[in-house]
Specification:
By secondary structure, the chain is of the alpha+beta class. The protein is built from ten helices and 18 strands. A hairpin with a 5-residue loop joins strand 15 and strand 16. The structure holds (3R)-3-hydroxy-3-methyl-5-(phosphonooxy)pentanoic acid.
């Protein structure tokens, strides 16, 4: 399915003088990862990725037109945002305004319950919620495909949080032009068979990461000798993952996800200089997950741009897995998530 090419619509910019909208979205955890951009401005990845949207850690975002303001204002968890956060949100609003052919500054108030910057995909829920709320306020009438293309421009992983359950994000043909890839790079839901999964999230460190995923991806793509092989392996993983999901085979889903994640971290470790998100505490949890498996529990780990570990298991085993991981990691917070809904509008006025 192709969406209309909204980014080239040319309309005279008309002022928006009122209106507000509130949207909510949840983070997603990739089981086949996105790591590395073909184009940074358009946020086009080198490979397809596949994730599960969670039913916890919602981000709620309220966007309201500020008719007399000259600049956008962003308030994140009650505090005015500055620097990189403000710049990213303003750039995103500018894209929405240009696409809609509208002008007028906005106030964005975001409540993010995900620990920000800790490799728990806080930017995925943040930009999925912002895409829904901002598109509504500036009068962009987008279908889910176009919304996921828009959310992608804020943060790649946000394209997948537009959808609930499992979602695949298409990279867009590598041999196509950037404009074609931009059109074809969107997320969509992935059917799954009889699967009742849970992700047990072990937050070993909720602090911000030392290297942003943007910088780490750039360094990996530019300098890691393993990057090309990881992209090729990921393509195979995606085919196998779709099949495992269709069959509802949690052990296959989990082992593909674990191998894919370890491969992604290997490409980063081989970058020059190396990017290392995994900490000693991460490796401890990986050992505990192996032990759970040895004890007959289906449990598989995945890690993102941070030291925290997400353990995929059957929902029926989630309490047992969470309890075991809590006992072994008394310093960590442990959360249990199931598959959640996609981004949605809660209220709109004006
Ligand atoms: O949060 P982003 O869009 O900059 O990308 C982060 C990518 C990973 O979380 C590491 C993997 C993924 O596919 O979500």
């Amino acid at each position: 399915m192709r969406s209309e090419h909204w980014s080239t619509l040319v309309q005279p910019a008309r002022p928006v003088t009122s209106g507000s909208a509130t949207a909510v979205a949840q983070p997603n955890i990739a089981l086949v990862k996105y790591w590395g951009k073909r184009d940074e401005r358009l946020v086009l990845p080198w490979s397809d990725s596949l994730s599960m949207t969670l039913d916890i850690f919602p981000t709620t975002t309220h966007v309201r037109i500020a008719p007399d303001a000259e600049h956008d204002t962003v308030v994140l968890n009650g505090r005015p945002a500055t620097g990189e956060v403000l710049r990213r949100v303003t750039t995103f609003l500018e894209l929405v305004r240009n696409t809609a052919g509208r002008r007028g500054a906005a106030v964005v108030e975001t409540d993010n319950t995900v620990p920000t910057g800790a490799g728990l995909a806080s930017s995925a829920s943040a930009f999925a919620a912002l895409a829904v709320a901002a598109a509504t306020v500036y009068g962009l009438d987008l279908d889910a495909t176009a919304l996921s293309r828009l959310a992608r421009r804020g943060s790649g992983s946000a394209s997948r949080s537009v959808f609930g359950g499992f979602a695949v994000w298409h990279a867009g043909q590598r041999t196509s032009t950037l404009a074609e890839a931009d059109l074809n790079s969107y997320a969509e839901p992935v059917p799954s068979g009889d699967l009742d999964p849970a992700l047990v999230i072990v937050v070993v460190d909720a602090g911000p990461k030392a290297v942003s995923s943007r910088e780490a991806m750039r360094r990996t793509v530019d300098t890691s000798p393993l990057y090309g092989s990881w992209v090729a392996a990921s393509e195979d993983d995606l085919v196998l993952m779709r099949d495992a999901l269709r069959r509802g085979d949690l052990d296959a889903v989990g082992s593909i996800a674990e191998q894919n994640a370890l491969g992604m971290h290997a490409t980063m470790l081989a970058a020059r200089p190396a990017v290392r998100y995994l900490s000693p505490a991460t490796l401890e949890v990986l050992d505990q997950v192996s032990r759970l498996r040895r004890d007959g529990v289906s449990a598989y780990a995945t890690m993102d741009a941070g030291p925290n570990v997400k353990v995929l298991c059957h929902r029926a085993d989630a309490d047992r897995v969470a309890e075991a991981l809590r006992r072994s990691n008394p310093e960590s917070s442990v959360h249990v998530a199931g598959p959640g809904q996609g981004a949605r509008l809660l209220r709109a006025s004006g």
